[in-house]
Write a structure and sequence with these properties.
The complex is a heterodimer of chains A (113) and B (107). Chain A is mainly β. In chain A, strand 4 and strand 5 form a beta hairpin. Chain A is built from no helices and 11 strands. With 107 residues, chain B is mainly β. Chain B is 0% helix and 52% strand. Chain B contains no helices and 11 strands. In chain B, a hairpin with a 5-residue loop joins strand 7 and strand 8. Classes of the chains: A mainly beta (113), B mainly beta (107). At the A-B interface, strand 4, strand 5 and strand 10 of A face strand 5 and strand 10 of B.
């Protein structure tokens, strides 16, 4: 089925470890974004991309890196995990243009101990 | 960054009741989207509204975009347990979300 695939679904890290959350879409969407969802805080934008080779920071970028070498993939890297990064992470993609809807992955639940 | 305020934050109602949730901003936005998120899943798009005063219907859900394009509402008629979820409004490109209304419909 076409859509946005996120891996892994669950992850436990120790403080200071690094890891990459994977996101892939097969809809040839130009836009891709990463969000974190915390209780009472809603969904907050971490980084986004409007096309291959183009990325920009969102509301809460500190501690995260992204790259967009292909249209399909948009990995999110945690450089040195901290307990404050415990959250549910969602990747989303969309066609270019303000009126197109975003398709979300099913999320990665990350716990940093 | 435009701030989106959603109200109420929580809503618990009985099956068959009607309800309205709101999304407000102090700024004008060119378009707005509503999403529903169920537990353990990502948000799913319900509708996009782009014209001031626009009304869109999706079965028992009615979405309205304010004339001044600073607010929107979602009305659900005869709510069902399957309507339970987190309702999020967003402005687009990139997506900025309100904190959502968490709806619980009790059978």
């Amino acid at each position: 089925n076409a859509g946005v695939t996120q891996t892994p679904k669950f992850q436990v890290l120790k403080t200071g470890q690094s890891m990459t959350l994977q996101c892939a879409q097969d809809m040839n969407h130009e836009y891709m974004s990463w969000y974190r969802q915390d209780p009472g805080m809603g969904l907050r934008l971490i980084h986004y991309s409007v096309g291959a080779g183009i990325t920009d920071q969102g509301e809460v970028p500190n501690g995260y890196n992204v790259s967009r070498s292909t249209t399909e993939d948009f990995p999110l890297r945690l450089l040195s995990a901290a307990p404050s990064q415990t959250s549910v992470y969602f990747c989303a993609s969309s066609r270019a243009g303000a009126n197109y809807g975003y398709t979300f992955g099913s999320g990665t639940r990350l716990t940093v101990v | 960054t435009q701030l989106l305020e959603q109200s109420p934050q929580f809503l618990s109602i009985q099956e068959g009741e009607n309800l309205t949730v709101y999304c407000n901003s102090s700024s004008v936005f060119s378009s707005l989207q509503w999403y529903r998120q169920e537990p353990g899943e990502g948000p799913v798009l319900l509708v996009t509204v782009v014209t001031g005063g626009e009304v869109k219907k999706l079965k028992r859900l009615t979405f309205q975009f304010g004339d001044a394009r600073k607010d929107s509402s979602l009305h659900i008629t005869a709510a069902q347990p399957g309507d339970t979820g987190l309702y999020l409004c967003t402005i687009t490109t990139p997506l900025v979300f309100g904190k959502g209304t968490r709806l619980s419909v009790i059978a």
